[in-house]
């Protein structure tokens, strides 16, 4: 665990500097999903968290700058499972294609550094002390206001809008607005993190700050089902887009967290699911993508098969992801909103 803490300390120098995908100094939050490794992480705790909700709610973090190119967008597409030979693969894997496009879920990447700063680098936030090994990724919402350009510099600003007291832990709700260099709003993220053993601080249990709630899937059979087998290198590839957490690559580090093997990034599975929906219901037209809301429930192990079940209701596509080899549901109560003609 010491290497993770040291990495966090070293990354303090990034608070007001630019961030490049794959940067070696950046380490993203643990995106373990609910229930995974909680007992092991709790038993290895070396300090307690502290939350003063009156001081922390409404705190706005420092803007962070993120620059990407066509190469980075292609690397992300490969990381979330695009392969040569798939429908429209040149559109996402070849910068010389006349219709070259950036997958809309790449919009989560610029916000990563800003949420990292806010939750892990607690000296920046009054009224909160967190313990990284106990932070779990619960839910993610992303809305894009225009298609992402092939290359750009984007500025993301996080605001910690609420903290919920769930007794067994605390839920941190963070909004991130991402603008371009002309101050035009490009994307909005809302992320929920659950910190184990950080509850019982006297806070409220519900929030009116959650922009979009998760929604149960329809009670009928799915309208469409597809699946993709991840490779054993999937996490190694996805991490090059900026999530350098050793949990996803280093077996020894994963073992320290109570895991038998490194797991796939939750936001990588998120990208697989969104790609499935975009292909089937939008013909890989990124201009039709509006927003996505996801709840993470269990992890995927690199090499497993991700299946996505989909239900269409108007311009909303409900979906749920399962691992074919185990039957485990890994993403639930989730949906994508499309811009329909």
List the helices and strands and how they pair.
Layout: H1 2-10, E1 18-19, H2 38-43, E2 50-51, H3 53-56, E3 59-60, E4 64-68, H4 70-79, H5 89-93, H6 109-120, E5 128-129, E6 135-144, E7 152-165, E8 169-180, E9 185-196, E10 224-229, H7 234-238, H8 251-256, H9 266-282, E11 289-296, E12 305-313, E13 316-323, E14 329-338
Parallel strand pairs: 1-4
Antiparallel strand pairs: 2-5, 3-7, 4-7, 6-9, 6-11, 7-8, 8-9, 10-12, 11-14, 12-13, 13-14
Low-pLDDT segments, ≥5 res = 1-20, 22-47
Q: If helices are DSSP runs of H or I spanning 4 or more residues, what is the number of helices?
A: 9
**Number of DSSP strands?**
14
Helix vs. strand class: alpha+beta
Shape: globular
Radius of gyration: 19 Å
The N- and C-terminal alpha carbons lie at a distance of 51 Å
- Share of helical residues: 10-25%
**Order of H and E elements:** HEHEHEEHHHEEEEEEHHHEEEE
Average pLDDT over all residues: 81
Strand content: 25-35%
Largest sheet: 12 strands, mixed
């Amino acid at each position: 665990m010491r290497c993770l803490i040291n990495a966090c300390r070293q990354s303090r120098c990034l608070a007001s500097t630019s961030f490049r995908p794959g940067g070696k100094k950046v380490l993203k939050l643990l995106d373990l999903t609910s229930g995974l490794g909680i007992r092991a992480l709790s038993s290895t705790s070396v300090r307690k968290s502290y939350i003063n909700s009156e001081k922390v709610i409404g705190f706005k973090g420092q803007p962070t700058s993120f620059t990407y190119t066509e190469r980075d967008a292609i690397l992300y597409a490969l990381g979330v499972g695009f392969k040569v030979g798939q429908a429209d693969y040149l559109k996402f894997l070849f910068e010389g294609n006349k219709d070259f496009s950036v997958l809309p879920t790449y919009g989560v990447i610029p916000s990563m550094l800003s949420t990292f700063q806010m939750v892990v680098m607690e000296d920046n936030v009054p009224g909160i002390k967190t313990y990284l090994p106990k932070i779990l990724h619960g839910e993610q919402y992303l809305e894009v206001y225009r298609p992402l350009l092939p290359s750009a510099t984007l500025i993301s600003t996080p605001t910690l809008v609420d903290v919920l007291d769930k007794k067994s832990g605390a839920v941190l709700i963070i909004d991130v607005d991402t603008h371009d260099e002309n101050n035009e709003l490009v994307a909005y993220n809302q992320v929920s993190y659950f910190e184990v053993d950080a509850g019982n601080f006297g806070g409220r249990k519900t929030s009116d700050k959650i922009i979009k709630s998760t929604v149960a899937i329809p009670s009928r059979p799915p309208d469409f089902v597809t699946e993709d087998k991840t490779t054993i290198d999937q996490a190694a590839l996805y991490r090059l887009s900026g999530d350098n957490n050793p949990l996803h690559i280093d077996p020894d580090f994963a073992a320290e967290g109570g895991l038998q093997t490194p797991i796939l990034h939750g936001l990588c599975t998120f990208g697989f699911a969104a790609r499935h929906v975009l292909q089937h219901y939008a013909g890989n037209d990124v201009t039709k993508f509006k927003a996505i809301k996801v709840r993470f429930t269990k992890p995927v192990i690199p090499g497993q098969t991700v299946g996505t079940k989909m239900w269409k209701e108007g311009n909303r596509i409900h979906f749920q992801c399962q691992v074919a080899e185990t039957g485990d549901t890994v993403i639930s109560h989730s949906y994508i909103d499309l811009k329909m003609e």
